[in-house]
Each structure stands twice: as structure tokens, then as C-alpha cells.
Design goal:
Layout: E1 9-15, E2 18-26, E3 30-34, H1 45-51, E4 56-60, H2 76-90, E5 96-100, H3 102-113, E6 120-124, H4 135-143, H5 148-161, E7 170-171, H6 173-178, E8 196-197, H7 199-215, H8 217-221, E9 230-234, H9 241-250, E10 255-259, H10 266-269, H11 273-283
Parallel strand pairs: 3-4, 3-5, 5-6, 9-10
Antiparallel strand pairs: 1-2, 2-4, 7-8
Length: about 290
């Protein structure tokens, strides 16, 4: 039996206006792991632990919520700049960059803005690149599963959390209502971890995301990307897998892995599946 990986080590990296705090663990090829949201607590500790036997993993709390800097630029460009600074702080020249959900979308923006900084790209269950990336249908697929009582409660909470005068971090109550429906089988959904939302950061990020969709930033740039890429998506994700297929077609040589029977959180629904898949992908990368 292989020994358990050593505990993660907390690291604070200086960025504009303060520090980004993250956690480093594991051994093997360097892998930067970006969490979803935007404007949510980092929830990827369990995925980092799954990957740690095969990779040296760093995941961090994105700007907007403690223990990282709680203010500053939370546009796409701001988050990309933070990711670059994190790589510099770690002295990682060309890691694999993976991201889940919004983190996968951010990883694609990092790749097209700074392709020289990546060894490989691995967006997972992402907001994708073509059109609106699947955003509209994603919301529709989640909402249609709610009972009338759940819908009414969610809409009440969402109005409060997204109000222009909402400025302080709050418990992600709306997400807690939607959480089971991210899974292929809502009845078997894993418990949602404690999670805060950053309303200012969410508004800033979504405004920026929509501006980039309108400008077709990723659609225009991904066909020129030469970074080895694997696109990972669950067959039963609320974002239809056709969105992942459309993005994979943009990237020369991209591998597409559609995971049967899996929703939005592959490592929670089929533990070990991402370690196996990413391990195989990494083994095939040029030295």
C-alpha cells in the first residue's frame, strides 16, 4: 500500500493589494487547480487530495474572500493576473493548469493570454467558450428540477444576494438549494461543504465574462492555441456536453473526455476518475 501523501502546506503569495492564500501538497508533475464560482469559497480540497498521489497540486482561494485578499480587481483580467502571480510565487514555469466550472473557464482565459506559462490545459465541467458557454441552459436545467417551494425560496434568496447594495460576504444559501441538482442523481448528492459568496466579486466577474462572450475572446483565440489540452465533462452535467464538444473543436489536437453517468462534480460522483484520467493525460505529454 502506498503511503498517504503528506498534509497540505498553506502558502501566502503576494499579489496586487495583498496576498493570495492557497494549499500545496502531493508529489509529481506540478498542477495548478482553479475553483469555480466565481466569487465562492475554494471547495477543491477533496479533489486536490484525490490528485495528490499523482501530482504536486496547488489550489487557492481566489480574490474576494478570506484568507485571500478580500478586495481588488475581480474581472476576468484580474483573476488571470492573480493566477500568473501565483505561478511566479511558486516558481512554477510551466505547470498543468486545471480548473472546475468557472475555474475551467478561467483556465482557458489564462491559456490564451499566457500560453507560454502552461505545459497543458485541463478544463473540467466548465463554463465553455462558444456562445454563452452553456450559461443559459445550465440555469434552466437547474431551475426546472426545483419544486415550487424550492424555486420560490431560491428566487427570494437570489434577489437578496445579487442586489446592488449587497457588498459583504454571505452564506451561499441559494447554491445550497440548487446543490443536489448539479449531480447526476440528486438523491445521492454529496453534502455541500461550507461556502461563502462574494457578491461584489460575483457581479464584477459575471459582467466581465459576458463582455468576453460578446467579444468572442475565447472563440477567436482558442483555434491558435498550441498548448496540449484535455476537455473533461460529465454526460449528465446540467451544462449539456455538446458545449464541451463545441469548445474541443476549437482547440487543435484537444482530447475530449465525456464521462458517462456523471454530473457536474466528477470526483465526488466517481472518486478516482479524475486522477486516472489526468494521470494518463500527463503521462502522454511531451517532456
Amino acid at each position: 500500500m502506498s503511503p498517504a501523501p503528506a498534509p497540505e502546506r498553506e502558502i501566502a503569495i503576494e499579489v496586487d493589494g495583498g496576498h493570495i492564500t492557497g494549499w500545496l501538497g502531493g508529489e509529481g508533475p506540478n498542477l495548478l487547480l482553479l475553483h469555480g464560482g466565481p466569487g465562492l469559497t475554494d471547495y477543491l480540497a477533496s479533489l486536490a487530495a484525490e490528485l495528490a498521489p499523482a501530482f504536486t497540486v496547488f489550489h487557492y482561494q481566489q480574490r474576494g474572500l478570506t484568507p485571500s485578499v478580500a478586495d481588488g480587481d475581480r474581472t476576468v483580467e484580474g483573476h488571470v493576473a492573480d493566477a500568473v502571480r501565483v505561478l511566479e510565487g511558486l516558481a512554477w514555469e510551466r505547470p498543468i493548469v486545471a480548473g472546475h466550472s468557472w475555474g475551467g473557464h478561467l483556465a482557458m482565459h489564462l491559456a490564451v493570454a499566457h500560453p507560454e506559462r502552461l505545459r497543458a490545459l485541463a478544463p473540467m465541467s466548465a463554463l465553455w467558450a462558444v456562445g454563452d458557454g452553456g450559461e443559459r441552459v445550465f440555469g434552466e436545467n437547474l431551475m426546472r428540477q426545483l419544486s415550487p417551494e424550492e424555486r420560490a425560496k431560491y428566487e427570494e434568496i437570489d434577489a437578496r444576494e445579487s442586489a446592488e447594495d449587497a457588498t459583504e460576504p454571505v452564506e451561499a444559501e441559494g447554491l445550497r438549494i440548487l446543490w443536489p441538482y448539479y449531480f447526476a442523481d440528486p438523491a445521492k448528492a454529496s453534502p455541500m461543504p461550507p461556502m461563502l459568496g462574494d457578491p461584489v466579486g460575483q457581479r464584477a466577474a459575471w459582467t466581465s465574462i459576458h463582455e468576453h462572450f460578446a467579444a468572442q475572446t475565447l472563440e477567436s483565440a482558442l483555434p491558435q492555441l498550441t498548448v496540449p489540452t484535455v476537455i473533461i465533462h460529465g454526460e449528465l452535467d446540467p451544462i449539456p456536453y455538446v458545449e464541451a464538444e463545441l469548445t474541443a473543436r476549437l482547440i487543435p489536437g484537444a482530447e475530449l473526455r465525456i464521462l458517462p453517468g456523471v454530473g457536474h462534480f466528477p470526483w465526488l460522483e466517481q472518486p478516482g476518475i479524475l486522477r486516472e484520467l489526468l494521470g494518463e493525460f500527463a503521462a502522454g505529454l511531451p517532456v
